[in-house]
Structures
1.
Amino acid sequence: MPATRRTRGRAPAGLVFGDLWEFDPAPETADPRLRGRYDLFIGGRFVRPRSGKYFDSINPANERKLADIALAGPADVDAAYAAAARAFRPWAATPGRERGKLLFRIARLLQDRAREFAVAETMDGGKPIRESRDFDVPMAAAHFFYHAGWADKLEYVAPGRAVAPLGVVGQVIPWNFPLLMLAWKLAPALAMGNCVVLKPAETTSITALKLAEILQDAGLPPGVVNFVTGAGETGALVMGHPGAAKVAFTGSTEVGKAIMRQLAGTDRRMTMELGGKAANIVFDDAPIGQAVEGIVDGIFFNQGHVCCAGSRLLVHEPVADEVVAKLKNRIRVLRVGDPLDKNTDLGAINSRTQLATIRRLVASGLREGAVMFQPPCRLPERGFYFPPTLFTGVTQSHRIAREEIFGPVLSILTFRTVDEAIEKANNTAYGLSAGVWTDKGSRILRMSTELKAGVVWANTFNRFDPSSPFGGYKESGFGREGGRQGLLDYARFA
Amino acid sequence: MTPRSPHAAHARLLDEVGAVDWVGVEERVSKFATRSIKRASKVWGLKMAVSMTDLTTLEGKDTPGKIESLCRKALRPHDDPEVPHVAAVCVYPSMVRHARRHVGVSGVRVASVATAFPSGQTHYRTRLAEVRGAVADGADEVDMVINRGAFLSGDFARVQDEIAGVVEACGRAALKVILEVSELETYDSIRAASFLAMGVLRPGDFIKTSTGKTSINATLGSNQVMIEAIRDFYLDTGVPIGMKPAGGIRTAKQALQYLVAVKETLGDAWLTPKRYRFGATSLLNDLLRQFEREKTGAYQAPYRFSEAAESY
Amino acid sequence: MSRIPVTKTPKVYIGGAFVRSESARTFRISGADGAFFANIPQCTRKDLRNAVEAAAKAGPGWARRTPYNRAQILYRLAEMLEARSGELAASLVRFGAARRDAAKGVAACVDRLIHYAGWADKYEQLLGSVNPVATRHFNFTVTEPMGVVGVIAPDSPPLLGLVSMVAPVVACGNTVVALASERFPYPAVLLGEMLATSDLPGGVVNILTGLRRELLPTFATHAHLRAVYAAAGGEERRTLRLGAAESVKRVRFVDKAGGDWLADSAQGLEMIRGFVEFKTTWHPIGS
C-alpha cells in the first residue's frame, strides 16, 4: 500500500548493488585454435628465427603459458625487409582494383573467423571478450573493408596531385589493441601499394600471427606483409632499418622520442601515435546520465589501456558531487574478472609490469593526498587484476593528473568557468583526445576549437571509425590514422 | 514563482530535471542486451519476471469468461509450485468486479486502467469518476493515462494537477501513471514527464511507459530514461517510485534484459514486484516456456502453454 | 661636397616593433661591390625566445581571424610589396643579383603572396572532411594551425625563399619566427618594414637576423615552437631533428640548394597541409 505522505527531508537515500541476483559464469567457449609455437612470418611463410630463440606468451588472466613466440634478431629483420623490398615493385604495380579485392578478401576472412580471433585476443591480452568480440575484431575487419575501397581511387586522395607508394614501411604496434592496431597500420599502407614489416607487441603477438594465416588464405603475394616478433630491441631494429622508407609507431611518448632521435640523421618519414592524458570535461547542463556512462567508457574501456582514455575528469563544480556519486554507483556494477566471461566489464591487466606501473602511480596518488574510491569486488587469485579506481581531491600538480597511468584509474578535478576548464584541459604536454559534455551547442563548438587535441568527443567518448582520422597534437604524436587524411600519410607525391 | 508562458514552463522544467542524450541512452541499453544470463541466474530471473507480470487483457471483446481464465492463469501460471503467481491482472474498469471475485485473497492484485484509457480524451470529472468506480469495485491498483495534449502544449501545471487529483481519487489503491512515451517522442520529454508525475506520487506508486495501444510501446531506451529518473528522484527525495514498462515485451530474453537494466541502474531494492512490473500478455508464456526448457533441457513448443494470446 | 646620404640602421622585426638584438651585437655585411653596407643585428637565443613569446601572444588572435580576413591581409601585404618592388629589387641587385632576375624574383614574391591569400579561405574545404562513420554520430575533421612555427630561410634566393616559406604558414593561422638568410639578410629587413605597414598584426611574423650556427640549436629545442620549416642540409637537419624529438616537434625541410623557387610547384596546398593539425570532432545525432 502506498504511504499517504511524502517523506522529503529524511536521511539521504542510497541504492543497494548487492548479490540478490548473481550471474552464473558465462564463459565464451569458442576454440581460439592456437598453435603451440609461432614462427616469424617472412616472405609469405612461417620461418624459424635465425636467432634460434623463442619467448613465452602468457595469458594475463591466469599466468598460464599460451605459446612459444619466435624472437627476431638482426638477421631476421634484414630478411623481412629483403622480402618486403622484393615484393614492393610488383605489388605497387598491381592495379588498385586488384589490391583492393585482396583487402576486401582479408576483411571477409577475418569476419568468417571473428569469434575465434576474439577469443585468441582475449586470452593473449586480457581484455574482456565482450570488447574483443564487439569492438576489436569487427573494427579491425572494418578497417580492411574501408581501405580496400580506396585502393583504386587514389587519384582522389590529394586534390590536384598524383600519389605513389613510399616503398617498405616499418611498423611497431602496442599491446592494448593488438589486432586493431595492426589493421590500422596494415590497411592504409597496403591500399596505397606499400609493403610492410610489422612488429607486434611482445606480450600480444598471437593475433598478428593468426592474421598471417588469413593473409596466406587470401592469396596476398609473399613478402607484401612480414611479421617479426620480439621485444623492444627487435622494435628498434624495425624502426632503424635502412630499408624502411617510412616508419609508423604507436606506443609511449618516451619510446616515440627515442625513435625520433634514432632517426634524426635520416630523411625517414614518420607517423607517431603516442601517449595521452585526456581531459573529459562535464558541464552542469550536460546530460548527466550519459556523461557518467561516457566517463566510464572513457576510463574503464579496455582496463584503461587506451592512449586516448579520458583519464582526467574535469567536472563543473555545481554538479561535481552529483557526478561523483553517480560514478560511484555506476562502477559498483562493473564486473571485474575472467576476461572470457561474457559478462565481464574489466578483464585482466595486460602484464605484471603494467600492473606494477599502475600500483606505483596509485600509491603516489595516495601519498600526495588524493582520496581513493574502489568498489568492493572480488578479484581472481591468479592473474593480473586491478579494480576500477576513482581519485577525488586531485589537483593539476598531482602525478596522477599529469602522467599516463594506462590503467583503470580516474583522476577527478573540478572547475568553475569555461576558461578554467580549457586552461586545465590544455595544461599538459599531451594532446591526443578530449571529451566535452554539455547540452549547449555553441559551447561544444567553442570547446572543440579551443581544446588542443586531435580528437574531440562531444557528448560521447572513445568512439572510433576507419573513416575518422585519429592522432595527436603536441607530444601525443603526429600524422593521422584513418580517413583520407591518414591514407595520405602512406603516400608520396608522384 | 510559477512561470506563466508555456515556453518558460518548458525551459524551466527541462532545466530542473536535466537533459538526456538519445544516442548515449541507446548505447547504454545495448550493453544490457549483451549480458549473458545462464543456468540458476536465468531461472531466478524468469521466476522474478513471472512474479512481476501484470497479466493484461484490454480488448473490446473481453467478457467475464475471458477474465476468469486470465485469472486462473495469473494465480497458477505453471504446474511447478516453484513458479510464483503473477503480480496482478490488468483489466478494463467494467471487468474489475469479475477479476476481484476470481483472485480473492491469493495475493494477485487487481489493476484497472482508467481515466478514459487509452486516449484520456474525456472530461476530467468523468475520468475521476471512472477511477473512483474502479476502486469501489475492488481495484488494488489504477493505471491512468496523463494528459498528453496538455503536456505537449506546455501546460505542465494542468498535467500535474490532474495526476494529483487521481492520486486522491485512488484512496488506498496504488497508482500507475502512463506517460505514453511514443506520443511524448523525445527522451527529454519522457524524463520531464516522469518528474512531473513523481512530484505528486506516493511511495509505492508507479510510472509506466505505455498503453500498449500505439505503434511504439516500451523499449529498453524509454525504460532506461524512466528508471534513471526514478533513481535520481529517489536519491534526491528518498521517495521510491516503481516502474512498469508495458507493451512490446514478448520474450523472456527481453524481460531479462529489462531486469538487468533494473539491477544495474536501481539496484537490488527494485528487483521486486512491489517496485517493478511488466505489463504484458504473451510474455508470460514465453517465460514459462524458457523455464521449462531450463528444467528439462529440451526446447518447448508454444502450444503446450495456455492462453497464448497475442494482444500485447 | 655632395650631400651625404642618410643610411638606414637595419633592425629586426619582433612583435610589431623594430628592435636591435638584446646582446647589442652586430655583424657587417657588404654589397656585391665589396663596399661596407651596414651592421646587421646578430640575434641571440634570447632574441629568439622574445620573438617566440611575441608570436605566441599574437597566435590566438591570428588563428581566430576569419579566413576571409587573413586572405585580405595577405593580399594587402602583396600590395605593399608591389608598391615597393623597385626598392626590393635594388636590394637584391646590391648583393649580386642580376637586374632581370631581381625583378622576376620580386614579382614572384608578390604573386606568391597572392596565391596564398587566395588559399586562406579555401584549403579547409579541401583538407577537412565530414566522415561517414558507422555509428549515429556526426563526425567531421577540420584543420587547425600548429601554433608558433620557426622558419629558417635559404641564402638563395634570400627574399623569394623567405616569402615562399612564411606565406603558407601564416595563411593557415600560424605565427612565425623566421631567421633571414645569413649571407643576404637585408631584403628580409626591408620585408619587415613592409609587414609593419601591412595590416598583419604585430607578432604574427617576426624576422630575426643572425648566424645560423648560433640560432639553429635553439630553433631545434625551443619547445614552444611547435614546428620548424627549414631550408637546411645534412648536419643541420640532424641537429633540428634531434632537438625536435624532445618535444615531438614537427620538422619540414626544403632543399637548401634551392630547386626552382619560381616554379608553380614551389607553392600550393601541400605547403599548407604541412603546417596544420587535423582535429576530428564527434557528436551524437539524436533527437
2.
Amino acid sequence: MKAEATDPLDEQLAKARSGDQRAFAALVRAHQRSVYSLALRMLTDPGAAEDLAQDVFLQLHRKLSMIESSAHLAFWLRKIATHRAIDRLRQQPAASVAALEEADLLGVHIEGDPLLQRQLRELILDLSPAARAVILLRFQEDLDPLDIARTLEMPINTVKSHLKRSLATLRDRVLNRDARSEGHLV
Amino acid sequence: MNDLEDKMRDALRPVGPTDGFSDRVLARLASGTQRSTQEAQARPRFHRANSRWVSIALAASIVVAVLIGQQWRVQQQEEGLKARRQLIEALRVTSDKLDLAYQVVNDPSPSEAQHEPGV
C-alpha cells in the first residue's frame, strides 16, 4: 500500500495527518463523489446518504494516522462507506426500498437510454444489501472482483457468484422489458 | 453481457453531493472537537460531584444500617425479657398447683377416716 509521494493526494494526505485542515478538506473533495454515490445508491435517501458520507469522513479524520497512501485512502473510504451502508440497511431494511422518486435523483447523467438507466437503478434496489454493494463497486467504482472481495471482506467466489446472479437477473428483466415494449409496438 | 455491463456503468456513474459538502464535514469536525473539549472539561466536575454524592450516600447507608442494628438488638432484648417473665409466671402457677396437690394428699378428709375398717 505504500506509494511514493508523487501523487498530489499523497502530499495532501501527509499534510492532513499533521493537522492541516485545508489539506483534509482537499481529501474530502477528492473522494466525496465516490463516497456519496455509494451511500446514495445503497440507501436511496439523499439525506441519509449525506449523513453517512459525512460520518465516513469524520471517521477518516480520526484514523488519518493509519492511512498509508492515497491508494489506501480510496480503498479505506470505499470499505467504510459500503460496510456502514450495509449495516444501516440491515438495521432499517424498509429504508432500502424507499421512494423510487429518490432514486430518480440519481439520473443526473443522461447519455444513452435514460429509461433503461433508470430501470437498471431501480432493479438494483431489489438486490440484497451485499449484492447491491458488489454491483456498485463493480460498475460504479470499476473494481475487479478481487478488490471487491478485499473491500467487502468477502470470499472472492461469493463476489463472483453475486455478480453472476445479479447480472443474470438484471439481463432477464431488461429483456422482458424489451419484449414488452416490442409487443406494444406490434 | 458486455453491452449490459456498459449500460450498468452508464447508469451507475458517480454523482456528487450538494455544494459545500466538504465545508459541512469541516463544520461537523469543528463542532465535534469543541463538543469533546467541553465534555473533557465537564467530566472532572461531573466526577467530583458524582463522588461527593457517592460519599454522602455511603455515609447515610452506614448510619441507617447502625440504627436498624440497634433497633433489632433492643427488640431482641425485649422479647427475651418477655419470654423470661412468661416462664417465671408459668413456674409460679405450677408451683401453686403442686402446693395444693401436696396439701390434699397430706390432709385426708374426715369422711374417709369414718369409713376405715376397724375404727
3.
Amino acid sequence: MLPDLATYWARRSRCVSGSGMLLKFSGRLREALRPRDQLFVFEKSSGRSEAEPEHLYLRARALLRAGDMPITISLLQQACELDPTFSDAIESQGEALDRLGDSAAAVAKYDLARRIRRRARLGAPDRHFVWRQQKRSAAEILAYTSVIKSMRRHALPYLARGNAYLVGGQSELALADFQRALKLQPASLDALALKGEALVGMGRYHDAMKLFDRVLSARPADFDALNSRGIARMAAGRIEDANADWKRQLEVLAGKSAPSAYIALRMADYDTSLPHLMRALRANGSDSYWNLYASAASLRLGRPLLAGAMEDGDSWPALLTALLNGRATADEVLARADTPSRQGEAQFQLGILAFDRDRASARRHWQQVVEVCPPTLVEYAAARNELARPGI
Amino acid sequence: MFSVILYGRNDTHGYNLHKRAAISFNAIAEVMSDPDDEILFVDYNTPDDHPTFPEAIHDTLTDKAKKVLRILRIRPEQHAHLKSKTHLVALECQSRNVALRRSNPNNRWILYSNTDMLLVPRVDGQSLSEILGDVPDGFYQVPRFELPEMLWEAAFDRRDPAGNLAKLREWSVRYHLNQVVQNFMPMKYDALGDFQAALREDMFAVHGFDESMLLGWHCDSNLAARLALYRGRVDTLIDKVFGYHCDHTRVAAANNKGRQTRMNDQDRYIWNVTSPYVQAQAETWGWPDVEIEEVRLDRDTSYQRFTAGLNAALEPATVPYTTTSLEWHLFDDLTYEISHTLPFVCDQMLTYPRSSSIMLVATRAEFVERFVKAWKAMGFVGPVLVPEECEGLPDDLLGLVRGSAAEFLTQADMFIFEFGLSTQRANECVRIGRMRGAKDKARLDVVERIFRHAASMESETRPAHRRLPRRFVGVNVIYNKYWPLFTDYIAANINPFCSQVLAGLPRADPSIRGKVLRFRGRHAL
C-alpha cells in the first residue's frame, strides 16, 4: 500500500534521505534559495500553488528520478484526483508502476493517458503548427527548463518551452522565451513568427502584425504566418486585408482539405468550404466539429442538412449540431456555453439558424460573437465577414 | 499501417553485417500484420556491378521478409553530385527521404530504424501494426537496449525470427539487458534513431530529414528537434515495445573514428534548430523527379532474370563437358566457346539499370545474336548499339541499333568488346592452334581500333547525364594476344581463364606509357 503524504513527511523529517532532499528542494526551500530559478515558473505564473496538479507533478518527477516510487505514485495520484485529464501525470504513474514491476497496471495508465490525449481537441488545422498541439504541456515545460539550465546559449530549448507555454495559455512566459531565442538567433524568421503568435495570444494585434509583415516580406508563401496575420488583421478590424491573407493561404495550401475548410469558413465562404468540409468529415468522422461545420455551411447556403447530421452524443459540438437540426433549443445550448469561446460558437450557430427567417436576429447573434469571442476562433472571423456583407 | 525505412549498402559496415541485417529484416517483418505494411530498404551507392545488399543476403531472409521488402536502389551516378561534399559513401538523410517519398500512401506511420534492430512487442503475439494502429497521432520513440555481440552472433538463427524474439524476452530478464538511457529533450533517449515513429503526413509537412546533413550522425536528433517543435511532444511507446540493438563495436564501422569522427554540427542541427520545416528543400526533398529503381526479392529476381536470359539464348549442352586450354603456345589462338562464355558476360550486366544502353563491338555474328536475345530476355529495355564499322554482324534484330561508333560512344552506358574469330564455326574445337585469316584480322583490327579509342576517350565522350566512368567488358581477353591490350587500357582484375571475361573501368595511368597509349587511342579512329 502506498504511504500518504503526511506519513511520508513525518518519516522524512526524522531522516532526510537523498530523495527527501530532492523533494524539499523541489518546493519552497529551493525557491527561497534560488528565487530566479526558472524551474518553478508554474508557481510564479497565474498564482499557482503547491496544491495545484502541476506542482504535484513537478515534485513527483523529481522523486521518480531519485527512484522513490511509492511516494512518486502517491503524489501523481493526488495530481490526477485534482485533474483527471492530466495525461502527463497519468503517464508518469505508468512509468513508476512499470519500474516497480507492475507492468499490467502501467499499461493501463499509459493507455488511459493516450485516450485522454486522443479525445483532446487540438487547435484549428489552418493555424500555426504551435496551435495544433496538445494544450497540456507540463512535461515539456519541465523537460526544457532542465535543458535550459545546461544550455543557456541555444535557441531550441527556449522555443520548445515557449511553445509549451503558449499552448498552455501562458503567453507572457512564452513571449519571454521567444525573445530570448531571438537574441540568440536574431535572423530566425520562425522565432519571429512565434513571437508574433505570443503577441496575438496577449491581444497585442498591432505589434503582432508588424512581426508577421517582416516574416511575410521574406517568405511570402509562409502559410502559418499568413493565417496569423489574417487573424491579427481581423481583430484590428481590417477585414479586407485579413481575407486577402487567407485567400493567399488557400492558394498556398493547394487543396488540403482540413485547413482549407477552416480558412474558407473564416471568410464565411461556405461554397468553397463545404466540399473541403465533406472531405475532412469522410477522412475524420470522429471529430464532431466537421459534422457541425458542414451542417452549418449547408444550412447557410440554403441546402438541406446533411444526412449524417443527426449525431448522437453529449459533446459540445454535437449539441450545437442538434441545435441546427432542431433537436436542441437555444436555451439548452446557451446554458452550456460556459466560456467566451463556447458563447461565441453558440451565438454563431444561432445566427446561422436565424439567417433565412430573420436577418436582424442573425445580425444580433453575430454581433454577439464579435463581442464575446476570441479573434482566433473561426466563428469570430466568419461573423465579422457576415456582418460586413450588405443586407445583413 | 506502417512503413519501416532502413538504409545501407552492399559493403562491410561494422562486424558481421550480414548476420545482423538478416536477423533484423526477419524480426521486423515478423511483427508486421497489416497488408499495407512494408520495409523500405534504400540501397545507397552500392557499386553498379554489385547486387543490392538485401539481394546479397536473400537466402537468409524469410519468405515474409522478402514479401514485405521493397529495395530502392540509389546508383553511384545518382550520388555523384554529392560525392565531393562528404566523406561518407552512404547518406542517411537522402536515403530516408527517397524512401519516404515512395512509401505506401495508405500507411499512417513511418518508422525509422536500422538494420541491426529487433523490435519486441511486450505482449507476446501482439504485432507492431496493432500497436501503432491503437495509439493517437504523435511522434513516438522507444529506448534502445544493447545486445552483446556474443548473444546475437552465437545464439540467433537468422531464419527463426519468432525464436529470436522469444530468446530476447528471456535474456532481457536473465541478463539484465533492459536499461533505459535517458537523454535531454527533445531526444528523450540515447540512440533514438533506432525507433522513431512519425505520422507520414507529418513527415511530408516538415519536408523529411534535412538533406544538408552530409557528414553523418545526429540526423535522428535533428528530426527529433523538428518534430518536437512541430508536434509539441515527444512520446514514448516503452509500455508497448522494446527495441534491441545488435551491438557491433568489435570492429569500428567506417563512420566511427573515435574522437576523430567527423560529424554534422550539433549546435546547428540540434540546439539551434528554430523551425520544424526545411524550407530550402521543400520542393526537392526525397528527389521526387529522380527515377529510382525498385528491386523485389519475392518476384522478378536477378536470378530469374539471369536464367530467363540464358534460357532464351542457349540450348542445353549435349555432352558432359567441353575442353579448352591455356597453354602458352596457344596465345594467338582466338577461338572460344560462345555457349560457355555467354553466362559470364550476362553476369556482368545483370546489376545495371534496365534502361542501360550498351555498345557491343564484336567480330562474331553468333555472339551478337545470342547476346541480344539474352539482353532482351533479362528485361533490359535499352538498345544494343552495334557500330556499322563492324562488318558481318546482324542488323535486323529487335533491340539492336546500327550506327557509327563515334556516335554510339556518346550514347552508351557501358561497353562490350568481343575479340573472336569471325570465321569460327559453331561446332569447331577451340584452342587447338587455329590461326586467324585475313578476314578475321581485318575485323579484329576494327574492334581493336574502336576499343583503343573508346577507352582513351571515355571521359570526353561520356553522355551529359553521366558523371562517373563507364564500364568496359572484354570477351575472350584472357591469356591471349588481346589480354595485354585490354588490361593496358582497362583496370581489370585477374580472372580465371575459364570465364574468358574481364571487366573494369578505364585506367588512369599517369606514366609516360599510359599517356602514349591514350594518345594513340584518341587517334585510333
